[in-house]
Amino acid sequence: MEKLIITGPTPLKGEVHINGAKNAAVAILPATLLFNGICTIDNLPNISDVKISCTILEQLGAKITWNKPNEITIDTRNITTTQAPLDLTSKFRASYYIIGAMLGRMGEIEVGMPGGCKLGARPIDQHIKGFELLGASVSLEKGTIHAKGKHLKGNNIYMDVVSVGATINVMLAAVLAEGTTVIDNAAKEPHIVDVANFLNTMGADIRGAGTDVIKINGVKKLEGNINYSVVPDQIEAGTFMLAAVATRGDLLIKNCITKHLDSVTAKILEIGGNVEDHGDSIRVWCKKRPTKANIKTLPHPGFPTDLQPQMGVVLSLADGTSIINESIWESRFQYTEELNKMGAKITAQGKTAVFEGVPKLYGAPVYSSDLRAGAALIIAGTAANGTTEVYNLEHIDRGYENIEEKFRSIGAKIERVKE
Ligand code: UD1
Question: Considering the domain 2-19+232-418, what is its CATH architecture?
């Protein structure tokens, strides 16, 4: 078992480079299945969710070559099976994108029920509704999903909830369907736009991604020999922005799209931090104790749920009492118990948590319950007095490339050790 040992407090200072977006990468990789050819993808984060996605593609018949640590070439000319490895697909959430992509490519697929962070109930009813409206049949049995539909036909699909996963999955299934599909009440996250851009580069006809109505005109096939660069990770950039504030540091966060970070920037300014927008980089610094604020997580362009735990660390150290209302996931406050072990005063009940700000946190052994909770605990350990040990690193490694090296390069005293 590995753990991180962090000694603080350290104000984080310097420059940090942001990788490609995990949530775009794990959709773009399956999207290559819609294409019968060779494509090269760069700015791909080298994280465990990406590596598992690649293994799943290989088991379906794709040939993958890692050209560099963040660039791969995928040859999808020889997809041979409609049976995805059940053990691997049930390891992470985004494996559900194999369904939309393989419905388009082969008209059939069997995958394991998707796994991923335990953030509360994570139904996939909107994905299934979308596939069925395109003419597929979907059955769930003994932990597997079997989807079948040789000749999908475009349709109007109104999403009952704003869902990132369902929007992308239905978009994937609709690319090669006959006729036009309209997804209404679609999610608008930056990675949805990125997946649509990737598919359009391959010859798809998708319009409106980034708004709540997406129109997909089905095409007969995708072709070419394409190169694509994954969009910078909005959540990784936001994690370092909030790390700068929590540790009262000064960071230049490079390779990000600052527009994607507007909701975070607004909150940082509200609590007394400073933000300077440099277009493809953003400087964040904070010299004094942040003040209280209330936050409600919302689908994009609202404050992202995936930055809620990192913001929670900032508010646990703020002057005054703050309230966070988590409107997306019902179990996203597990990290607050860990912060309380470090001296925070947080009371969480259901989807609301009250943060009575304390002037200091103190090092303690803490356990990451999910990916973003893990990032929050690293920030807390860097801001806290004394030594923090962070356990359950497998969650963090799913979504952050070289996280301890990045924190070390901006001054953190952090080490990964094997027990
Ligand atoms: C994606 C992100 C995750 C992020 C979340 C919200 C990936 C791989 N993961 O997850 O990091 O926290 O968006 O920004 O991109 N819902 C339903 N029925 C469905 C689908 C979703 O009721 O069929 C509900 C969910 O329970 C949740 C809400 O819709 O309350 C949003 O979920 P969704 O946007 O689908 O999240 P994911 O795509 O799983």
Answer: Alpha-beta prism (3.65)
